[in-house]
C-alpha cells in the first residue's frame, strides 16, 4: 500500500527527557490518522520530526517516499502544518495573513487574493477579513490558522491538536472541514487528547504513551482489544449505576445479566439496562494501565 | 473529558475517493524576500508608537544636549556641530533595537516554525525585518538631521561627503540591526529581547558622541577610544565638518563589517538550533 507517512524507530531525547522511544507509524495515503495521547506523550515532537523541524536522534521518517532528514525540501513541498498554538501574524489582518501565505506558497498576487477570499468565506471569516488577528477570538484564530494551511492543496496535512480549546460548535465545524480535506484526497495526520475526536474522525488511530505507539488500528479494532460489549445499568434519570464488561460471547452476556439480578440497584423503579461497545477510554485505560489524565507537562 | 458512548459512525479504513492534491509550486527567485520585506514594512507602519518614539527620542535628546547642556559643555555655541553625529548614531541604534523584539515575537508565536515547514528560505523572514529596520532608521536619521539644521547645525559637507555619511550611517544601521536580530533569536521572550537592547543603547554615552574622549576619567578613555561606536562617530563628524578624515574611517568600516559577520554567524547558528523549540 502507498504510504503517506512511514516512520520507523524514531527516537528523540531533549536533555534528560526521553521524548520518543522507538516510534513506528504507517499511514496510508488518503486517510485520516489520529495520534492519540496525553500531554507529554510526545505528540508534538512526532509532528516536529515529520514536518522537518526537528531531526530524530535515531530512526527514519518518510513523507510520500521522501526522507525528512535527507530531502527536507521535497517533504516541505508536500506538507502543511497547523501547529498547536495558532502561529499567525498578530499585526496583519486575516486577509493579509492569507495573502502572505498564498504568496509564499507560489500564488500570484491576484491568485493569492482570490484564494484568500474563498477561504475567508469557507471559514465564515469574511466579516473579520479586514481586522487584525490580535482582535480575533480563540475560535476565529483557530479557523484562520487552519485556513492558512489550506491556501494551496498539499498531499499531507499535519494538525497538532486542532480543536484544543475550541467550543463544541467550532470543534464540529473543524471536524467537517477535516473530513472534506480527506474526501479531497489528502492525507490528514492529527494529534489529539480527545478520545471522542479520534473515534469520530479518524480512519486509523495510534495510541501514544511515553514516546511509543502502544496500539494501532481502527477505532473498532482498538475497542476489540478490551473485549466485548459493556452492559450498563442506569436509573430513571440516566445516571450510571453499574457497568459490567462482557467477553462478547452469549455466555458472557448471560453471566452479566445474572450479575445484574444480584444487584439491588437493578430493582430500583425506572432503572434501565443497555449494551454499549467499549469506548476508547476503556482502551486507553487497558493499554496504559492508567487514566488518560494529563501526566506530564508537554515537553517538546 | 468523557469518551463517547456508543459511537455510531466510524469511517471505514482505507483510501478515499478523489485525486491526490498536487505539490506546492516552486517560488520565484526573491519572492519570499519580497513578501517578508512587505510584511515587515506593514508591521513598522502599524506600530506608530515605536516609530514616533524612534524619531522623538533622538530629537528630544538633541534639543536637550544643545539647549540645556550645550553651553555648559562648550560655551562657544558650536556644540551642536559636535553632537549631531552622535545623535544620529544614537537614533540609528535606538530604532534598530526594535528588530530584536520583532524577531523574538516571531519566534514566540511560532510563525517562524510555520515558515520553516514551507519550501522557502525561512531565513528570509529575518531579511524582511533587517530591510524594514534599515529604511525606518534612515528615515528617522533624515528627520534628526533636519531638526539639527533647524537648531543651528551647520555642516560643511560636499555632496560626495554627504553620500559618504549616508553610506556610513546605513552600514552602521545594518550592523546594529543584524546584531539585534541575533539578540532577538537568542532571547527567550520578546520582553527579554527588549531588555538586552536597552543595555546596548548605553554604548554611545561611553564614546566620543557627546563629549571628547580625553575629558573622561583615565581608566575609561581606552574603552571609549577603542569601542566600535567612536570611530563611526569620528568618521561621520569628519565627513560633515572640516575635521580631517583619517584611519578612523577604516576602523569604522572594519568594526561594522566585523559586527555584521559575527551577528550573521551567531544568528544563523541560533536560527538552525531553535527550530521546533519554542
From TrEMBL, chain A:
GO biological process, one term: response to antibiotic
Keyword entries, A-Z: Antibiotic resistance, ATP-binding, Cell membrane, Membrane, Nucleotide-binding, Translocase, Transport
Pfam families, sorted: ABC_tran
Residue span(s) of domain ABC transporter: 5-235
GO cellular component terms given for this protein: plasma membrane
Protein's cellular compartments: Cell membrane
A GO molecular function held by the record: ATP hydrolysis activity
InterPro entries: AAA+_ATPase, ABC_transporter-like_ATP-bd, ABC_transporter-like_CS, ABC_transporter_ATP-binding, DrrA, P-loop_NTPase
Topological relation to the membrane, as annotated: Peripheral membrane protein
Record has Cell membrane as a keyword: yes
PANTHER family linked: ABC TRANSPORTER ATP-BINDING PROTEIN, DOXORUBICIN RESISTANCE ATP-BINDING PROTEIN DRRA
Family: Belongs to the ABC transporter superfamily. Drug exporter-1 (DrugE1) (TC 3.A.1.105) family.
Protein name as it appears in the record: Daunorubicin resistance ABC transporter ATP-binding subunit
UniProtKB/TrEMBL annotation, chain B:
Keyword field: Antibiotic resistance, Cell membrane, Membrane, Transmembrane, Transmembrane helix, Transport
Entry's localization field: Cell membrane; Membrane
Region annotation (Disordered) ranges: 1-20
One cellular-component annotation, GO: ATP-binding cassette (ABC) transporter complex
Coiled-coil intervals: none
Swiss-Prot/TrEMBL GO biological process terms: response to antibiotic
Domain ABC transmembrane type-2 span(s) in chain numbering: 49-274
Topology in membrane: Multi-pass membrane protein
Transmembrane segments: 51-70, 82-104, 125-150, 162-183, 195-213, 249-271
Listed GO MF terms: ABC-type transporter activity
Similarity comment: family membership: Belongs to the ABC-2 integral membrane protein family.
PANTHER family noted in UniProt: NODULATION PROTEIN J
Record protein name field: Transport permease protein
Organism in which the protein naturally occurs: Agromyces terreus
